[in-house]
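Notes from hallway chat w/ T.B., transcribed later so I don't forget. T.B. wanted the structure written out for a chain they're using in a teaching module, and asked if we could keep both sequence and structure tokens in one place. Agreed to drop them here.
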Amino acid sequence: MNRKKWEAIDWGITLVPLGMILLISGALLMIPEQAQRVITFLNHFFVNEFGFFYILLGLGILITAIWLAFSKYGQIKLGAIEKPRYGNFRWGSMIFTSTMAADILYWSLVEWAYYYEATPFGMEQMTLAEKQDMASAYPLFHWGPIPWAFYILPAVAYAYMIYVKKRNRQTLSEACRPILGKRTNQWQGRFIDIFAVVGLLAGTATTFSLATPLLAGAAAKVFSIKETKFLSILILLVIGVVFMAAVLWGMKAIAHLASACVILFFILAGIFFFCGPKVYLIETGVTAIGTVIQNFVHMATWMDPLRLSGDGGNGFPQTWTVFYWAYWIAWFVATPFFIARISEGRTIKQTILGGLSCGLSGTYTSFLIFGGYGLYQQTHGIIDVAGSLAAGAEPSAVILQVFDQLPITEAALIILIFAMIAFYASTFDAITLVVAGYSEKKAEKIEEPRKGLRIFWAFVFLLLPIALLFSESTLSMLQTVSIIAAFPLGLIMILIVYSFLKELKKDLTKQEKF
């Protein structure tokens, strides 16, 4: 790297997050018991003392997004081009695959089982039908309008900043400029950006740590090899190689990779649907959607205040809803910027309603088919997935049991492997494209961040997942990592949305005067 390129890198925002992640990774590897105690304490603190913050933020973001779409601001066009840069299918594909698409596959196959034996809303006992309804409905809620609003509303704010205000530096601090003013370029702005990168690194660590063991288990089963942590790491490296190949081709490669992901996804979904109980899947899906619609406000506001008294509460919303909202918040650092980049030429209303529709179409299809197939096996006494999980079985192991019920298990697993690798690589493309921009001092003069920086960040993103894999991390531990990372990011999200609305009002007032 020549001196000019070396000086163009923002070393503070590049090295401080790297140092923090190395410190956390080292603690997990060198002093795992002490690190676990600290994480347990932080989990109790953030979940029980500030759980309401995540719940209220989610509801507020969704309400704001819907209001904005149908307000007088909804017709504002994000960019000067005549028609959207990407067609609807390609645009929707990139939105779906740029998020936690590999995780969506993972959770679709197993999340329902965690809820099957749970008792939400303080219900002490449930019939088989009630268990089935809650197990199929709650995943749709946790991957529904509220979490997608965490992406779509900031994406609109970023697109307005980039294509209307022509401020192309893609950082959270830049999105706060209407409030921060000159302080955007001072320590306040740098503080926001450093927190943003560290929060994203922590959030993505949860993503890669959860689903990679499933990939390793599937590969071990298909190729008759031993499943080890080193196999999981090898798979992470393969994902990195696929990502680096895509980087060499730029945004066109991301678009093609996204389309390939969607094709593989629907092939796998077709296998589960046509090899499964089709009528059951349809009826359970319709019922689940109806249950969410009927109970949406209750689900979105239930905080289980009796959980600490031992008088009927079980902490279900703290364990799951708070975790999921934090999980999605941690990703808002990068994913909405990517959605903003591909939304040029659309109106605010089109971006909000279209983005929500594309996101919900993908997640609901996944959960209704993959989750419904596993739920059928459970309710009809074929395999006891929920019981195995409750007894301490590895989630990846019980997912593979579900695949064993298919008549073409190996073919389905091969498609799963290719789909998840492609999904992960596509996600890497999206997040490194944005985060590498944080490392550029003159990002506004560069169409895309340098490929070397994107590859550097890709390796950084692998550090914490590898440490978590070796530290025997539990689901609770992974949930805590996201919850902690999301708290300051939630505060920053509020600041960004407020800045955006303030700027919209100011700009529209100026236009009306003229």
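Follow-up for T.B.: Residues 32-70 form the longest helix (39 residues). Might be a good example for the class.
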